[in-house]
Amino acid sequence: MFFPDNYEFFCPTKINSGKRALEQIPFELDALNARKPLIITDKETAKKGLVKKITGAFRDSGIAVGIFDGVPPVPDLELIRGLANNYRDAGCDSTIAVGGGAVVDAAKALNIVVSGRPEDLKAFAGEDLIENSLRPLVFVPTPLGTGFETSRFATLEELTFSSPFLMPDLVVIDPRMMTAERPAELISTAMIALAHCAEAYTCPAKNPMTDTYAYAGMRFIGENLANVIRSDDKDGRLALANAAAMAGIAFSNTPRGIIHEVGWALGDASGLPPGICMGILLPYGLGYRMNSEGYHLSDMLLPLAGAEIYVGTEENLRARKAISVIREMQHDVRDAAGGDIPLTLKDAGIAKDALAGVAGTAAGDGAAGFSVDDCLVILEHAWEGKSITSS
Amino acid sequence: MNEFREVTPGGKPFKKAYVALMLWFVGRAIQAAAKVDGDVKKEFEKLPEGFTFCLGVMPHGPYMIVGKDRKERVKYMGWRREGRSIDLDMKIKNIEAAILMFTFQEGTAVATARDRMVVDGEVPYACAIVRVLDIGEVYLLPKIIARLAVKRYPVWSFGRKYIGRVRIYFRSIVGY
Amino acid sequence: MYLPEYYEFCCRVKVISGHNALEKIPESLAKMHAARPLIITDKGVSEAGLVDIVLDAIRDEVAVGATADDVPQDSSLKVVNRLADVYRDNDCDSIIAVGGGSVMDTAKGVNIVVSENAHDLMKFSGAGALKRALKPLVVIPTTSGTGSEATLVAVVKDHERHLKMAFVSYFLLPDVAILDSRMTLTLPPFITAATAMDAMAHAVEAYTGLAKNPLSDASALAAISLISSNLMGVMENPSDREGRLALANAATLAGAAFSNSMVGVVHTLGHATGSVCGVPHGMCMAILLPYGLEYNMHKNAHFTEELLVPLAGAEVYAATPKHLRAEQVVAHIRKMNQDLHDATAGRHARFLGEVKDGGGRQVVPREKLEDIAEAALDDGSIFYNPEECDYEDFLMILRTAWEGTPLDRGLIKGV
Ligand SMILES: [Fe+2]
Prior knowledge:
The complex is a heterotrimer of chains A (391), B (176) and C (415).
Chain A: E1 6-9, E2 14-18, H1 25-31, E3 37-40, H2 43-47, H3 50-57, E4 65-68, H4 77-89, E5 94-98, H5 102-115, E6 126-127, E7 137-140, E8 153-156, E9 159-162, E10 170-173, H6 183-202, H7 208-231, H8 234-252, H9 258-270, H10 274-288, H11 301-305, H12 307-311, H13 318-336, H14 355-363, H15 372-384
Parallel strand pairs in A: 2-10, 3-4, 3-5, 5-7, 6-9, 7-10
Antiparallel strand pairs in A: 8-9
Chain B: E1 4-7, H1 13-36, H2 38-46, E2 52-57, E3 63-68, E4 74-76, E5 88-92, H3 95-102, H4 108-113, E6 117-120, H5 123-140, H6 143-149, H7 158-174
Parallel strand pairs in B: 2-5
Antiparallel strand pairs in B: 2-3, 3-4, 5-6
Helix pairs in contact in B: 1-2, 1-3, 1-5, 1-7, 2-5, 5-6
Chain C: E1 6-9, E2 14-18, H1 25-31, E3 37-40, H2 43-47, H3 50-58, E4 66-68, H4 77-89, E5 94-99, H5 101-116, E6 137-141, E7 153-158, E8 163-168, E9 176-180, H6 189-208, H7 214-236, H8 241-261, H9 265-277, H10 281-304, H11 308-312, H12 314-319, H13 325-343, H14 369-376, H15 391-403
Parallel strand pairs in C: 2-9, 3-4, 3-5, 5-6, 6-9
Antiparallel strand pairs in C: 7-8
Helix pairs in contact in C: 4-5, 6-7, 6-8, 6-10, 7-8, 7-13, 9-10, 9-14, 10-13, 10-15, 14-15
Bound molecules: fe (ii) ion (FE2).
């Protein structure tokens, strides 16, 4: 087992997962010294009746709640200002974000505002500029998300925030919130989680603590994704939601990886869901790192495939096997989903001459530790579907 | 903004009534078992004079209280905890968790492992009371259910199992 | 990966690990807006020169308020109150605890008193009594075993009222745990062995117990793997920095696992053996661990067998038929105990009858086993054990663990 000379790890997030988890929220809020939460979500989540499930969990608790169910797909500062007024006027002292993506971004931004002064929001944009812990933030996931929900990151308009204090205090994963969703969207969410776990587990900056979250996350995806797509297995969906929460935590404690960055840039450029992009890139991004100094691909086979396959594979073949396990899983999942999940960028309808631009955006100023060329090699192989390790 | 509103969620009167009834029964059954069953009697003998134990649901009940009175008799002492000093306080975190326990979907051990309860008081007391509750479950529940509630279904003599059960049921209902 | 119907997991401690992790303390304190720590430790730690190493690492950047190095073996209310006075008298604003379990318990107790301005610590015992964050607490473990740096529990004894006060709250979790190889470099091999086996017991019992969950499981697997691949190396070469740091990390990982998933019969009997006969905790753990696994095997062999990968490696796992893997896990732990016995010239005991004190006298006379079994009935860790355990069961396990023969699993009720 790889062990680093030095590392730092922090995860303030508690996870409550399973049967009747929602009903534990009043108790947990009390332990965080909170009495009145503001529940925020978007219209779609509210339409599915999920907000009612949360308020139902507060029955018999003696706690009144505020509800805002109109977070738009792209929240802005204006929204946060309004929310902050609602929060203060209603005497709220904590936030419960229900759903994924924009809702959680809004909740995190709101939490910065209500824990300090509203005009200060811009001053906190950047790396580690929030100096104190914020008000209690509870996150209740549904099956879909962007992978940022449990992370230290939030974005609002052009602002990006990064601070461990933005990680939720509590994640409540309840089977009743695990609504049936379209396979493509489930796969997209799962692929973000898998990419985040895989990059955290194999990167040079990994440590035993990030390994813990990444290990459990990968194991859950490896064991459950195909089943969920094939037969809509309820326990499987709960496991995938666990994996997504864990992935965000591992991702927050390791540098952003190349698959993540290229996947996002590609999603931005093409309009494809970032998870589908990361899924396509995964085997190539990992393959590219297979023989790189400091990367730990062979360890990944154990959580991905389980003990029997791991011990049955010779040590020097484990990295290659891990990648082929991912490929097999992706084919399996695609077939189960009815075949409309692209596995190459060409099939996804990306123009080959768009790749250079994407590589440029992803590599940025090079601070992330990889170059435009690195990104381009991966993109080109992923475009054609040509195995990167054989080249 | 019209998307904002405040809600005061209601109560769960039927579930609370059910749990209250079950707690009443458990309380009276412990009182009965302390007379009928040798092991339960021994557990209570080891507990200090005036020992009081409360089992209930957060945040506002229902509760049941069992204690040793001045004559060292084990008594069901009702559902009001106000004004009592409680040596062992076992609180189920919410009414839904209580329903899981009292519909026997989660036995004591499983509920404890799942963090469903908060226990305040000295650990040896908690150990003794959990043993008493386990014995109580074996008396009160049919084997098919009790087997799920306890870790190991005990091998008891015919007399303890069947005659004891009848005596405890009878005493629980009539209350002595 | 096993996903229970319901679980909770939380490990809010920031972990800083490295050969120069101590140097990160000033920065950590500053982030928490603290600048004047009270250092709490014990005589053993300060005489071993460890406090000096800490002071050297932080002196340039931090004005230490005071250093109190007289925490006794057994935490006590009196000491907690006295140290709280030291904290106030010296205008401290944070606490650094350097030591093992009792130092950390004491530091957590002091933190409650100074943060809540408490006159009666008792008021804050029991669940839910603490409602807000306490003063910044940095802990630096000096043994790789107890895992207290990752637990939310503190036990303080009130010797006058004969009370053992237990405090449980997420606010008791230290803010930062510093794992620095220099802190365990001089730990004698015999204690290294016992404390590592304590961590091993935490990981194994968390993984095989009733409250297991995916994150405890992953932490436990990592802890077991780190211990089995580093312990013997450190025994042979005590100044192996990498190995020391790996063991320190294993202890913290195992602490996170058992803080969330608890322990079982091994600890039940270990606590009882410790309190009746004074056997060091880690030694009890090493001796009793194989027996606990054997006793529960009919309930949890499917979990126990999975430990063979981190414990013995892929080759051994692959070469062992599935139905023998759980037993192989037990055999492997027995073999570890044998190896540690050999590496310590016999000081690491393999069975209870073999435990000797400094003067070579037997520490656990056979006639004490009944008392130990009786004491075990008062220990709450049994709640989380997969199989029921009554007085007779305790005694049966103790007798075989005293002799050092494997458990006759036919004797277990319910098998
Ligand atoms: Fe221990």
